[in-house]
Amino acid sequence: MSNKTSNSASKRIRALLDENSFVEIGGLITARATDFNLQQKETPADGVITGYGVIDGNLVYVYSQDAAVLNGSIGEMHAKKIVNIYDLAMKVGAPVIGLIDCAGLRLQEATDALNAFGEIYLKQALASGVIPQITGIFGTCGGGLAQIPGLTDFTFIEETNGKLFVNSPNAIDNNEISKCNSSSAKFQSEETGLIDVVADEDSILEQMRQLITLIPANNEDDMSYEECTDDLNRICQDLENAVGDTGILLKSISDNNMFFETKADYAKEMVTGFIKLNGITVGAVANRTEIYTDDMSKSNEFDAELTPEGCEKAADFVNFCNAFNIPVLTLTNAIGFKATIESEKKIAKAVSKLTYAFANATIPKVNVIIGAAFGSAYVAMNSKAIGCDLTFAWTSSKVGMMDAKLAAKIMYADEDAAVINEKASEYEELQTSASSAAKRGYVDNLINAEDTRKYVIGAFEMLFAKREERPGKKHGTV
Fold it and tell me: How far, in Å, are 131, 217, 461, 466 from residue 363 at the CA level?
């Protein structure tokens, strides 16, 4: 560790990595530029500490910006150190973690600093889908620097001091920071979909450590089993009561109730995150209609509808899982699409992205229908029609075009209530029941809710060696 930067930048690295595991690279590098007032300033490590170490035995590369050196601003040599870390990480196949606290471009270096930004962007783009990239924002991350978390896979932000923006709040027309602090952790996590975790600094570093143990080191890592100490056949009592809050449901079926939720504050009607099943990391995507707090009081309620934000959130998550060969489990309870003017502007494109993400993914895919699965919203949620390998349905679930009563009203619009009720009953039996879908082969098995854990574990075990090819192409365009 650089003896000139024993401040917050180095302390974060020490807290993040296993004790005494960090090896610094480029600690003697300083700024080359001397224009304006730079020749009068010391720039130890040029404002960024770079190197490698381990987290629970897993190799990672780290850069941590030092706000005490020119406010952590990025210049030519600062960027070259980060680029070098990326080059090494790509060679050996290990994640890169960036700890951001930066004023942005170094004005004294002008075009050299602009080029430096571009070099970092290029390395991030090349690394995308090859090695995991994680960003932690502990101070300012503004302007062009905001692209760095946008190009990474997971972003954490400190709840009080973290600031993320392209345009500062006061630079936005008809706004100033007291009116709407668009740079705050709260705004960025709830409105933009860029933030995965908001927490205090210590909690962020601890959760980063947990995340590293859950995801592969690179896109060729075989994600070997870790020992599972939970009962593989554990019955999950009262699981049907969690059909609304699927965050609780996922935690219940996971090994030792482990659940790492991503983007928890954004599009809360769609849950994404990682669980463990028989020691293997599985990505989870689930519709949600309720949220309960730790004391089991209801804090939020949603319709069982797909929203543009929820679809985009889920699609991005599935794409990450597919890139790194992480199996995906979906829990489906969707009756349609959110019907508002604002939703209508984006829903067609967003649900297309979700459909494409599932259809394009070659990883093991398992779907459990836990509630109502109606219409094309059901089809988009990892149905067999778009490539799901195995679909289970709870015995209490429904699968079909729409609610039976509504269908009967449409088909028998001129009939009285007795006829409509009779036809609704017939329609539910023939076209809307899970058993009817199973008879047609759209559902592979009907299961009791309490048996969900053992069935999905068995399914992923069977699919462990799955191989699936796609038509040769450079890439899709959806």
Answer: 17, 17, 13, 7
162 shares a domain with 236: no
List residues bridging with 55 in a β-sheet.
Answer: 58
Instruction: Say if residue 333 is in the same domain as residue 192.
Output: no
**Nearest in space to 22 (alpha carbons), one of 48, 47, 65, 59:** 59
DSSP 46: G
Tokens of 119: 């070099």
Q: pLDDT per residue over 436-471, tens digit each?
A: 889 999 999 999 999 999 999 999 999 999 999 889
Q: What percent of the chain has pLDDT over 90?
A: 72
142-151 residue pLDDT tens: 888 899 999 9
Give counts: helices (H), strands (E), the chain.
Answer: 15, 21
Residues of the domain holding 242: 230-462
Indicate the DSSP class of residue 18.
P
> Which residue shows structure tokens 């930048």?
9
pTM summary value: 0.92
C-alpha distances out from residue 90 to 84, 123, 162, 203, Å: 10, 9, 28, 28
Q: Hey, what amino acid is at 312? A: E
